[in-house]
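User: Okay, second chain of the day. Same drill as before: sequence in, structure tokens out.
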Amino acid sequence: MPSKYLNDPRLLLKARSVLLAAYDLLSDRDRWTQGTVARDALDRPVQVTDPRAEMWCAVGAIERACHEMDLPNLRLSTIQSLANELMMRDLDRVEGTSSIPEVNDRPDPETAYEKIMASFNRLLNPYMVATLSRRSEAAMKGWATRRARIAAEVAARRAGWEARRAAQPTMTFGGTLPTTDNATERKDSPVCATPLG
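Assistant: Same drill. Structure tokens below.
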């Protein structure tokens, strides 16, 4: 995986969305499988995108989540590769292997499932994704500063909107409108200048 993708915040955000969708697919233990990317209700291997698929391994869940996104094929494969790369880096750091299938297909299914879900949990932490993508501390501080500036701008806009809304006259049910001299208004109004009848 070229490092240029690992440093693109937009692609990292999409990859995190894919990881979250894959996590949701596998959050129910009964929807996780080993030995193949996907299985149907009768425990038969099927393609990841097959509508009959009801169980997925970690790689299959990531692939399925990518295919459910509305993206062009080139972008889809880049984001899928990035999501897989992030998981491989996490597993290499924690488990000592960068092979997702090796962790997913361990002989003890309960331990394998727990390790895969723990990896998803770590990857859904934004700081961890940034760390695995080789972001420096300076870059992390820069993003934190930018987020704080954006939050301050949003708060200022919101305060302005609320002040303008508070300054506008409002009418409540059963309330009265601001009064004017109705007789003067009628006399000077071109609509009422000519008598009816």
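Residues 3-135 form one domain.

User: Thanks, on to the next one.
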